[in-house]
Amino acid sequence: MDPTAAPHHDLSALGLFLQADPIVKGVMLSLVLASLASWTIIIEKFFTLRRLRREVSALAAAGEGNGAPTEDGLAAAALRAGMAEWRDGRDPAETVGEHRHRIEGAIRDAAGGALHRASAGLQILSTTGSVAPFVGLFGTVWGIMNSFSGIARSNDTSLAVVAPGIAEALFATAIGLVAAIPAVMAYNRLSSSFAARRRAANEAASRLARRLARRRPEIASGLRAAAE
């Protein structure tokens, strides 16, 4: 074996991680954990949005007089809030429009609260998308600094000496981009989807409030029973 031959470097993903500087390893691990957290949130919100679509549809159906929600959730909570205001009745000094507005506000507040709770976690996607590339860049800069320090100590500028260290450093940036890109795309998509659900819920709240404001207690007994 030629003693002057350059040492073998494993340029696989695992090899680049194991050979990296401890600080660069910490950067890589933090980015991998951020990516796993992002994907967990993305998958969970996908199923949450499917559920919210059904619940908002149930609220819209109640507003159109096509039945009341049969399961607990956004629609049932919004209906209970609206019915609570409706049962209080209209104040003698209150116009019909003000009474309807009060009922609508209660329904919207309940639906908005449910949507706000369901959207928890989107901030993690936003933070990951914004910060991960810079964290990866920090790991890259640190790794390149170490590579140049090694070059200075060995007085050898051959590609075989320089390339492994730079590859390890650049791998941190690659992981940062892998974590950031899906997080940014998912955040934009999920934010627009939650906004669409909120608009649909507000429209359903307006229709339901108009329906309740026109009804006397004995006419709305079906909705009252469903809300209790």
Any overview of this molecule?
With 228 residues, this protein is mainly α. The protein has one domain (20-62, 69-227). The protein has 7 helices and no strands.
Instruction: Report the count of strand segments.
Output: 0
Radius of gyration: 29 Å
Mean pLDDT figure: 81
* Residue share in helix: over 70%
Largest sheet: none
Structural category is mainly alpha
Number of spatially distinct domains: 1
Instruction: Spell out the helices and strands N to C.
Output: HHHHHHH
Assess the beta-strand content as a share of residues: under 5%
CA-based shape:
rod-shaped
Uncertain stretches of 5 or more adjacent residues: 1-6, 217-222
Cα-to-Cα separation, first versus last residue: 84 Å
- The DSSP helix count reads 7
What's the helix and strand layout?
Blueprint: H1 13-19, H2 22-63, H3 74-88, H4 96-118, H5 122-154, H6 159-214, H7 221-227
Descriptive tags:
228 residues, mainly alpha, 0% strand
Concise overview:
By secondary structure, the protein is mainly alpha-helical.
